[in-house]
Design a protein that fits this description.
The complex is a heterodimer of chains A (277) and B (272). Chain A is α/β, with parallel strands linked by helices and 277 residues long. Chain A has 6 helices and 11 strands. Chain A has a domain of 61 residues. Chain A has a 7-stranded mixed sheet with strand order 6-7-8-3-9-10-11, with helices on both faces. Chain A has a 4-stranded antiparallel sheet with strand order 2-1-4-5, with helices on one face. In chain A, helix 2 packs across helix 3 and helix 4 runs parallel beside helix 5. Chain A starts with a strand and ends with a strand. By secondary structure, chain B is mainly α. Helices cover 79% and strands 0% of the residues of chain B. In chain B, helix 3 packs parallel to helix 6. Classes of the chains: A alpha/beta (277), B mainly alpha (272). Chains A and B meet through strand 6 and helix 2 of A and helix 7, helix 8 and helix 11 of B.
């Protein structure tokens, strides 16, 4: 459960300004969808949140602390591709986070601790609909199943923030709908703040609590290099969507105060438009 | 049907692969019998029976002077040198390749150095090795290591760098330290690629082995070939070359098999 704050963040590559004047607050347990035309810096923003890139100006704060300059276990991620490890079986992929946490030098667990980790991993796999696939390698799974695996793998480590970089963009519509249901459940049942980059507006409005559009304010060819994209629309989904407090697959200790509730799952409601300066 | 669409079946494939081998054999024996018809004492292209006789002598009869079965002891000596040199190269390449491929700092420090050393012609270093290390086993093993290691490190570091950036980031979001990334992400995925790199270096490794044995040695397959060259003993040289080729081929097949059995996930990764 983490609040994120962007404090006048700019990103420049040399003379080229990609993002400018990004200032926004993300409340804990929010599900943010970042949308916008391609090349508008959505992914750059996500990579800064991940710690893979640093802002050129301004800062990003998580729970009032400046974001560490490299990726860590507080921020899980699912990419569109290459999110799971091809040399590990499904079960090993999910167990990896636990093994890395508990076995500092070997990176592997043995005996009882391994069995405990495997049990937890199996439960999580059943939750995401991958029961019976444990011994397969990811290449034997369909695209949708691979993304389910990637979600399970990320959640197993218990991150506070989950970052999704067009995670369902390459999936067929039917499979995508199924995985949306799963995504919604995971968000409800874990303690996550989610930030998702997507091309798909219906996906954005169908899942998120808030949709943020990035856009270049000036897009003439001679201006393109010198003016970056910024937040052009900040839409709160209405009726307000909030996470259901449940702890069934939450790897974090239960009992934390979560008193929010989801009203209308699935259907995007009316939109509340907020003008952004 | 167009040739590009014509795929040979299993049986045709077998016959087709035999064709070039048969053609070479036919050409050889035609030439051999033509020369032997002119001069029965010709040594350049010996007939099959004389080669069989020579192999029998080398492989199945103890050498009267040393009491060794020469072909076996030559093979053991050569494979010992090749094996220990390639073991050193493989282990060093694995470690250095991962370090250089994974750590930008190590790449800046060692990358250019490895690239430059891989350009040094190893055979030009042979005299130095003989002077510094003497004529024993060490200098021969060192030659093979020097000849293969820089290329293996360079190739392997490149393979590590080709691992998708997403994987390295993902591992960090699962809490992995640099050491854990190397151990659980980079190394297991590098091992099957190491086998590819090793297979590519088998040819050069044999070249350096034969060269070192030819110049200063008292045993080994290369030594034998260059020894009997003095007597124009083609009936020994040709079977020895065939035997070396067979050994190299079997090692290659063995490595390929190891790769398939030990890393079942790798085939589909490579296909991407």
């Amino acid at each position: 459960m983490s609040a994120i704050r962007f404090d006048d963040v700019w990103k420049e590559y040399g003379d080229h300004i990609v993002l400018e004047r990004i200032t926004m607050e993300v409340e804990p347990r929010a599900f943010i969808a970042l949308v916008g035309p391609s090349g508008c810096g959505k992914t750059t923003l996500l990579r800064m949140l991940l710690g893979e890139e640093q802002p050129s100006r301004g800062q990003i704060l998580v729970n009032s602390k400046v974001l560490p300059a490299e990726p860590d276990a507080d921020r899980g991620v699912v990419f569109q591709r290459y999110s799971v490890f091809p040399h590990l079986t499904v079960l090993q992929n999910v167990m990896l986070g636990r093994e890395l946490r508990d076995a500092r030098w070997l990176g592997r667990l043995f005996g009882a601790t391994r069995r405990a980790a495997a049990d937890d991993a199996m439960k999580l796999l059943a939750e995401v609909g991958l029961a019976g696939q444990e011994t397969k390698y990811p290449s034997a799974l369909s695209g949708g199943m691979q993304q389910r695996l990637a979600l399970a793998q990320a959640i197993m480590r218990g991150p506070k923030i989950l970052l999704l970089d067009e995670p369902f963009g390459a999936l067929d519509p039917g499979i995508r709908a199924d995985i949306h249901v799963l995504m919604k459940r995971l968000w409800n049942e874990t303690n996550l703040t989610v930030v998702m980059v997507t091309h798909d507006l219906s996906e954005a409005f169908g899942l998120a609590t808030r949709v943020i559009a990035l856009e270049r304010q000036r897009n003439r060819p001679e201006e393109r290099e010198r003016y970056g994209a910024t937040v052009s629309r900040d839409l709160e989904i209405f009726p307000r969507r909030t996470a259901e407090p449940r702890t069934s697959i939450d790897p974090a200790p239960a009992g934390t105060t979560r008193s929010s509730k989801e009203h209308q799952p699935g259907r995007p409601g009316a939109l509340v438009l907020k003008e952004h300066s | 049907m167009r040739l590009v669409n014509l795929r040979p079946g299993r049986q045709t494939r077998f016959y087709l692969l035999a064709v070039p081998f048969l053609l070479v054999a036919i050409a050889y024996f035609a030439g051999s019998s033509a020369r032997l018809a002119q001069n029965p004492n010709d040594k350049l292209l010996p007939a099959l029976p004389s080669m069989v006789q020579a192999v029998k002598q080398m492989a199945f009869e103890a050498d009267p002077r040393s009491g060794n079965y020469l072909m076996a002891s030559d093979t053991v000596a050569s494979l010992g040198r090749l094996g220990s040199a390639l073991a050193i190269s493989t282990v060093a390449a694995l470690i250095l390749g991962i370090v250089i491929g994974l750590l930008p700092g190590a790449n800046a420090l060692l990358g250019p150095f490895v690239s430059v050393t891989s350009m040094v012609p190893p055979l030009a270093l042979l005299p130095i090795l003989f002077i510094v290390m003497g004529l024993g086993e060490n200098s021969k093993i060192a030659l093979i290591v020097i000849g293969t290691l820089p290329c293996m490190i360079r190739d392997l570091a490149m393979k590590v760098q080709e691992l998708p950036r997403e994987q390295i980031v993902k591992a960090q979001t699962l809490g992995a330290s640099t050491w854990q990334i190397a151990l659980r992400v980079a190394m297991p995925q590098t091992l099957p690629r190491l086998i590819d790199v090793l297979r590519l270096q088998l040819g050069p490794a044999w070249l350096f082995l034969i060269a070192a044995e030819a110049i200063a040695s008292d045993s080994g397959l290369g030594y034998r070939i260059f020894l009997v060259r003095r007597y124009l003993a083609m009936d020994v040289i040709i079977p020895y070359v065939a035997w070396i080729t067979l050994l190299a081929f079997l090692i290659d097949v063995g490595l390929r098999l190891l790769q398939r059995k030990a890393f079942p996930w790798f085939a589909s990764v490579r296909a991407e």
